[in-house]
Write a structure and sequence with these properties.
By secondary structure, the protein is mostly helical. The protein has a single domain, classed as Arp2/3 complex 21 kDa subunit ARPC3. The protein contains seven helices and two strands, in the order H-H-E-E-H-H-H-H-H. The protein has a two-stranded antiparallel sheet. Helix 1 packs antiparallel against helix 2, helix 1 crosses helix 4 and helix 5 packs antiparallel against helix 6. The chain is globular. The relative contact order is 0.13.
Length: about 210
């Protein structure tokens, strides 16, 4: 398990770095024209961490023969990216975490629906934190930003897509998601606020003009 985790981690980071650099060179996203090297490194690290936490260090429970419930911290780096670097950066981190994670360590067939929810996981908190709260970091701004993002992406859309794609009844996956994400929101808020209090990330890389 340790060896497999190390191999996946190394492969993840190499693939993530090359993918982010390739996207920047090709100008795939307009906002990436001003995407600094520092932000590329931060994004790559967060994508890699999300892949590891999601694909290796998480518990998964099947509902109706497909993964219905996942317990882990894979969303935390994505949300962190949105809060730290803005909504589009957070969305990119989320989408690439899901897409690259699938190719590195697939967990069933690839479904773009869940890449979309992963995008929203980083995009919505970043959008609310940047443009509603003007980057004022406190418990209230964090819990509102994260709550809205998780409500839309994880509590509503994931059960909806499970129902549409696999026939898993919405209410069967909705209730566990609601309970689980309520706990996650509280935990994510505490962790991110703790990071800010202890200055474990530098606020100067926040820049709404480039994201």
């Amino acid at each position: 398990m340790v060896i497999a985790s190390a191999v996946i981690k190394e492969a993840s980071f190499s693939l993530v770095i090359s993918s982010v650099i390739s996207l920047k060179e090709k100008g795939a996203f307009l906002f990436m024209k001003n995407f600094s090297i520092k932000k590329m490194v931060y994004s790559s690290l967060l994508i890699t961490l999300s892949i590891i936490l999601t694909r290796v260090l998480s518990l998964r429970f099947a509902i109706g023969g497909v993964e219905g419930i996942r317990i882990g911290f894979g969303s935390l780096p994505i949300i962190f990216g949105g809060i730290l670097m803005g909504p589009l950066a957070g969305g990119l981190i989320g989408a690439l975490s899901d897409i690259l994670g699938y190719f590195i360590n697939p967990l069933g067939a690839y479904m773009p629906h869940f890449s979309f929810t992963a995008f929203l996981t980083g995009f919505i908190p970043g959008l609310i934190f940047y443009y509603l709260f003007n980057q004022k970091l406190n418990y209230f701004s964090l819990i509102v930003s994260i709550s809205v993002g998780q409500l839309i992406s994880s509590v509503l859309l994931v059960p909806l897509f499970l129902d549409m794609l696999f026939g898993v009844p919405f209410k069967i996956s909705f209730i566990p998601k609601l309970v689980g994400e309520t706990a996650n929101v509280a935990l994510y808020t505490y962790i991110l606020h703790l990071f800010a209090e202890r200055k474990l990330f530098k606020r100067e890389i926040l820049n709404t003009n480039t994201n």
